[in-house]
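Incident log, entry 3
Record: Inosine-uridine nucleoside N-ribohydrolase (322 residues)
Problem: checksum mismatch between cached and fresh output.
Input:
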Amino acid sequence: MKTWIDTDAGLDDALAILMALKYTEVVGISCSYGNCSRDQVVINVTRILSAHCAQYNTLPPKIYLGAEHSLSKIQKKPTIISEKNEWHGYDGLGDVPNLEQHLNYKILDIKPSNNLVDDFVSLCQESNITLISIGPLTLANQLQKIAKFNLISMAGCFGVHQELQFKIPHLYDTGNMRCFGMPYTEHNVACDPEAALVLNNQNGSLIADWGLTIRTGLTQAMYQKLTKESKTITGKFYTEISKQYQQTLSKFGYELFLICDSLAVYLAIDNAKYSGIRRNIEVSLNDDETYGQTTCQEQGNTLIVTQIDYNDLIQKITGIWM
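Fresh output:
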């Protein structure tokens, strides 16, 4: 499958991008704001690509400057967070300087292109492109106005909706943005709620939501085994940058090592096994605590994924380390 990745390149994005590079044909990567500034995302994507190319002795896909800020009229989450993010670190990749030198390879010199729109439209005209949106939905919303593509996203939180027939016994089951006054939404939607209306993409879209994320992750024992037995440059790279993230997950009471954006990438892999329900998605734009809340209404084109073949997923993730 030909994929284009739009990322805000924090720690969960790093694993997702490494998976996409290994298991799909990545034709472009756009760097957008979100977990950190767009300029920092360019640096982070370059580092991720450098690890992949060092492992497989290959050339990187082209990277592009994506969205720089939210388009929503109401913005509760700052576009750039100045203080240290205990999930992703100051730099978005766990604050591990000189890692490439330690692993004995060089960071590639990759210049981001400003020609995103023309290149994306051209690719969509030539073949069937799947846009994997693993950051704010700002760019996806803009691109759907000028091109037809399949959309897969890590977005929203439907985990406590009655029609999905499950409940998650966890403090953060309704969302992960309480600290910004949005207790019922998920990060990528919270960054630009108005743009999240793209979830009802004209071609239909696939969503891996926050509820799926906190039900589907690596056990701590599995994470420890992978990090200790890693044989690849990509595995060693991710092991080092994810240490702070793992500690923060434990601090907040998560029993699993959450892989977040990797779930969206898994959906794009050929012969991936998953199921879900098709619904029409609504996003609250009310200026209150429901701002950014995603709800599913009547039958629609958007598939909210509720189940993934866990063994197949783990096999794909293991391939990054082994």
